[in-house]
Amino acid sequence: MELEKYITDTKLEDSTALRLRNFYNSRNFQFAWLTEKGLAEQTRVFYELDKSYDSTAVDSTKNDRTLRNQLSGLINKDTLIRQSSPALVKLELELTQHFFSFVTNAYAGKVDPAALQWYIPRKKN
Hints:
Blueprint: H1 2-10, H2 14-26, E1 34-35, E2 38-39, H3 41-56, H4 65-76, H5 86-106, H6 113-116
Antiparallel strand pairs: 1-2
């Protein structure tokens, strides 16, 4: 329900909404970027990659500075996540949306964003 609310509230394009739905459906709606111990390792890697791309990109208007600042704050402090909150769900969904946008822009059609989702580890039951 949170995913659909986010899609509606942010007025995502149909293709972006479909990517998000497929991504989380394939993960059984588990978080990709946040764990009980804080940020997942792939979140830190993506943060550094995105920051590096932003410093060298000709057009950095597509980068979300608010999201990056939020991540920077979480990276700089050791944060345990005791329970999910609407703010954390929103951060998780924003990161996924930004990831797909990043792949689309940084790799300019050379990489299919949907194919990369398999490189983001899933929680093992």
